[in-house]
Design a protein that fits this description.
This is DUF1911 domain-containing protein. InterPro entries: PA2201-like_C, PoNi_C, PoNi_N. It holds the Pfam family PoNi_N. This protein has 14 helices and no strands. The protein is mainly alpha-helical. It is globular, with a radius of gyration of 20 Å.
Length: 322
């Protein structure tokens, strides 16, 4: 497993950004309540992929996440220098909120065209976060005189939540056929290349330097999903393993910041729920040709995106120059 990472904040959301978030919760309530509205709740229910979110909270959440990003942008220009760890933390928060907006919009039934645009925003935020992180490490090395790695990533794969963020952004890229974006993520997470079997298998269709590896960081929840393409002997066994993975997915992430978000709505303000989706299950099925007919209606499986990926030859479009 990788060692020798330069010190940084453990979580990508800075303490300052968290404080501003709490203040916004109270200060912007009236504005948020006034801005929601679909033509009807029935129309929204017909569009959305999961039924844990009302039309009201969908719009409140969109507004809320955009406000968080706006506040982060203000912090970017408030005198924090690029080599300050706080700057990298703010940009980490922006990446997470961009990814949450993408998930929320997908849950609400947005078009693939809009999803592509949201994905580009999320990847761009990830790149900015990593660039700021490395600037901080360079400044820290100069100040301390220590020989610190300058090719690191603030995404610590050893941490389950961090690893899920990396797997999410790669898996969505696979389904959208976004090869260039996947190559960017692989570049910025180079420090972890060749250390995790699932991560390598997901980026392999888009890169020119696949790396053999049989290790992985997290037995739970990913073991059944890895078995689905690595140890099974028949197509039926592969499908059964993906189903097993989906069945255990939600419980395995207990303790993650997003877990049980649908149970913690702040009335009239926001709900910290953006959709529970196993994009990686669909990406694995696409890459390895696993039949999803026996579990495609699973609550956590993004079947429409998986269908779109197959119909639009996303796997072929991952290659460089495609």
């Amino acid at each position: 497993m990788p060692t020798g990472h330069a010190p940084t904040t453990r979580w990508p959301i800075s303490s300052r950004a968290r404080r501003r978030r709490k203040a916004l919760t109270r200060a912007r309530t009236g504005c948020l309540v006034a801005r929601f509205g679909w033509s009807s709740a029935a129309v929204f229910r017909a569009k959305q992929g999961q039924e844990l979110l009302s039309a009201q909270y969908y719009k409140l959440n969109i507004r809320w996440l955009n406000l968080l990003i706006e506040e982060n942008n203000k912090l970017d220009s408030s005198g924090i220098t690029v080599d300050d760890v706080e700057f990298a933390g703010v940009l980490g928060s922006t990446f997470i909120e961009r990814l949450n907006i993408l998930k929320l919009k997908y849950t609400g039934g947005c078009t693939v065209e809009e999803l592509n645009s949201l994905y580009a925003d999320a990847v761009n935020a990830l790149v900015q976060w990593h660039d700021a992180y490395r600037s901080h490490i360079k400044a820290l090395a100069l100040e301390s005189g220590d020989d610190l790695r300058e090719d690191g990533t603030p995404l610590h794969f050893e941490d389950l939540y961090h690893f899920q963020l990396a797997i999410d952004v790669i898996s969505i890229g696979v389904l959208l056929g976004a090869g260039d974006a996947i190559r960017q993520v692989a570049h910025w997470t180079e420090r972890y290349r060749g250390t995790d079997l699932l991560f390598e298998s997901l980026i392999e269709p888009a890169i020119s330097d696949p790396r053999d590896n049989t290790d992985f960081f997290h037995v739970s929840p990913y073991d059944p999903l890895i078995d689905a393409f690595y140890t099974v002997e028949t197509p039926d066994e592969a499908s059964a393993k993906v189903k097993e993975y989906l069945d255990g997915w939600y419980k395995s992430f207990e303790g993650a910041p997003w877990h049980d978000g649908h149970l913690h709505a702040v009335e009239g303000e926001y709900m910290p729920y953006y959709g529970y989706w196993s994009f990686e299950a669909a990406a694995v099925c696409l890459i390895h040709g696993i039949d999803d007919s026996s579990f495609r209606d699973h609550l956590l499986y993004p079947k429409d995106l998986a269908d779109w990926a197959r119909a639009n030859r996303s796997l072929e479009r991952l290659e460089s120059g495609a």
